[in-house]
Amino acid sequence: MRDIYAQIAERMRRGRRFAVATLVAMRGAAPAPAGTSLVVDEDGSFVGNIGAGCHESDIVERARGVMLDGEPVLVEYALDDEVLDGSICGASLEVVIWVPPARFVQDAEAVARGRDPVTFAIDAANAAGERRAYPIEIPRKRTLAIVGATDLAAYMAEIGRRLDFEVTVVDPRAPFATVERHPAADRILVAWPERALPEILGAGSALVVVAHDVKIDMDALVAGLHSEASYIGVLGSRRAQRARFARLRELGFDDAALARIHGPAGLDLGGHTPAQTAVSILADVLATLNGAGGRPLHETDGPIHANLTAR
Fold this sequence. Notes:
Layout: H1 2-14, E1 18-28, E2 37-41, E3 46-48, H2 56-69, E4 73-78, E5 91-98, H3 104-113, E6 118-125, E7 131-138, E8 142-147, H4 151-162, E9 165-170, E10 187-189, H5 193-196, E11 206-209, H6 214-225, E12 231-234, H7 238-250, H8 255-258, E13 261-262, H9 274-289
Parallel strand pairs: 8-9, 8-11, 9-10, 11-12, 12-13
Antiparallel strand pairs: 1-2, 1-5, 2-3, 4-5, 6-7
C-alpha cells in the first residue's frame, strides 16, 4: 500500500494528471484493507491493486472520466459472481474514484513513510447523488527489532520491509552493523540491546534475536522481557533454548514470562537457507501479531480475511 501513496505524492509534486481509486468500505471476505488504492494515469495505465479483479477495467474507465470533470464518485462492486475457474470471493467493495487535492500531498507522503498513523477523509457522492465523507485511517508501520547483524538479519530486514515493518537492526559489533551488510534496514544501531531496545519495543512490536552470541542474546532477551513487545523470538537449538531459559530463571523470570519467548523462533517450513529461515521466522511473527494459528488455510473454516480490518 505505502508504495502507491509514494507514487501519488510523486505525481502530485510533478504536477501529473491522474486519478486514484481508494477502497473505503467492504463487506464479506475483503481482499484488502480500507485505504488500499490504485492510481490511474491520463493514458489509462495504472499501478496498484485494490482486489477488484475483473472490475479494474471499469475502474480505469471511470477514473478517466473523473480526471475530466474532477468530480469524485463512489462505486460499489460485488465480487460474489462466479468466475471462469469456478471460484468466488464473496466480498462487496465500496470504492471512491477521486483526484486528490493539492493539500493531500502531505498525507500521501506521511502514509508512505509509515512513521505515524494517518487519518484523512474523501468526499464523494453515491449513485443516488447523496454526498458524504469517507474517513480513512492508515496505521503506522509495525516495529521489527532484529538483534544480531547477521546474514539472516539482512534477509529478515528485506522481507520485513515488504511486510510493512519498520526494521531496526541492533548489534554492538560495529563491523557487523553496517549499511553495506544491511541495506534494507530502516535503522542500524551499534549498541547493546539493553540500551537500544527500551526505546524501540512497545505493544504490537516484534523482537527477533539472531546474534549467535550468548552475551548479546541474553542481553536482548532480558530487555525484551522487560518490554511490552508482542513477539519475542530467538534462534538456536533446543539445547541452547533450555540453557537460556535456565539462566533467565536464575535472573528471576517466571514461567509466565518465559512463555512469551518463541524459542526456537519460526514455523516448521522445512527450510535450511538463510532466506528460508527468514520466511519461517517472519511467518511466526505475523501469525502471532495477527492472532492467527499459522495453520494451512485448507485445514481451516470460515472467511480467509475475517479479521482484516482489525489488523
